[in-house]
Amino acid sequence: MSKRDYYDVLGVSRDADAKTLKSAFRKKAMECHPDRHPDDAEAEGRFKELNEAYGILSDDQKRAAYDRMGHAAFQGGGPFGGGGSGGFQDFGDIFSQIFGQAGAGGGAGGFADMFGGRAGGRAQTVSRGNDLRYEMEITLEEAFRGKDVDIEVPIAEDCERCDGEGAEPGASVETCGTCGGAGRVRTQQGFFTMERPCPTCGGQGEYVSDPCRECDGQGLVRQPTELDVSIPAGVEDGTRIRLSGQGDQASKRGATNRQRGDLYLFVSVKPHAIFEREGANLFLHAPVPMTVAALGGEIEIPTIDGGRSKIKVEAGSQSGRRLRLRGKGMSVLRSNARGDMYVELAVETPSRLSARQRELLEQFAREGGDAVSPESTGFLDKAKRFWEELVDQ
């Protein structure tokens, strides 16, 4: 069966401009769209024929080849041959480019959505709201336990006065004459076609004749919004938490599909007066009385969970000795495990002595008390070798 003339398919003259071609295609495509004629093979065939005709004639180079050679330009020997006849499968569903919907066989839902959209039939446009950032500071104890907190965030929502349209009540939202409601314009430079947002409407495909006084024509206003946020146990300083869909609302104008942005929480943890943190482990400097360090004993230390632990100090312990308490550190994020706590001993020398204490210490020193420390013995040995090397020089 021979192909019909593409101009006859669209019902236009051979000198029809691009706007006329598009208008003719839109009209005929809506008349014979398969969603309007379910189970009608002839309607689907006409729709494919329209797609094929518009796909050729809407392309300047292919139209010029068709005007010179007819259908032969898209057969094996033609300049566009070898890639199919330029039909429905080759060019895709042109209807989806014009109306932003699925093509033939796309289901009744797509067709209903298209006719329920805005006047002007602009393409399917997804608009996404802005992501938001919220910074909060918590204590180390809160990072250990986790925390549920209410926060207030200014979030962009649809303006109530204009219902998000951006126009004063009673004013109209009009289709942009520059882009015909598409939101984008094309320019031809040699063999290349470039597309960019419409400079008149800013890519929205429409404009407001009388902007809303409440939102200044934006359609969105910021409203303080309370959110219940759960900070998980084990978070570290600088942790980022994403709350999907809790950001700004997208603009309603010019969009057929709106998506909210996300809210990102950036958590900082305050420095602690006692504990230092490295990952899931905690470090604590614990003062130890000189007598306990010398004779041995126990000291009591705090833990991050608010409890207390007793640790054994062996006789002769020196400053800097590190003891490990398993499972007494921070919570591990998304786990029931805990890190460890490391206690570093700091032996304290008394600064105020009674007469009796001084007398006992002096007696201790006379009996060789200064020589009992292994650390001081090692230091004296090193110092002695240092002095001997100086004499030899």
Rounded Rg: 40 Å
Q: Give the helices and strands as they follow along the chain.
A: HHHHHHHEEHEEEEEEEEEEEHEEEEHH
Portion of residues in beta strands equals: 25-35%
The tally of beta strands, per DSSP, is 17
Helical/strand content category: alpha+beta
Which strands sit side by side, in order, in the main sheet? 12-13-17-16
pLDDT averaged residue by residue: 80
Number of DSSP helices? 11
Low-confidence stretches: 83-93, 99-123
Q: Count the domains.
A: 4
Oligomer: single chain
Identify the overall geometry.
Answer: elongated
The H-level CATH homologous superfamily of the largest domain, spelled out, is: Heat shock protein DnaJ, cysteine-rich domain
Helical content, roughly?
25-40%
At CATH level 2, the architecture of the largest domain is Ribbon
Could you describe the largest sheet, including whether it forms a barrel?
4 strands, mixed
CATH-assigned fold name of the largest domain = Chaperone, DNAj Protein, Chain A
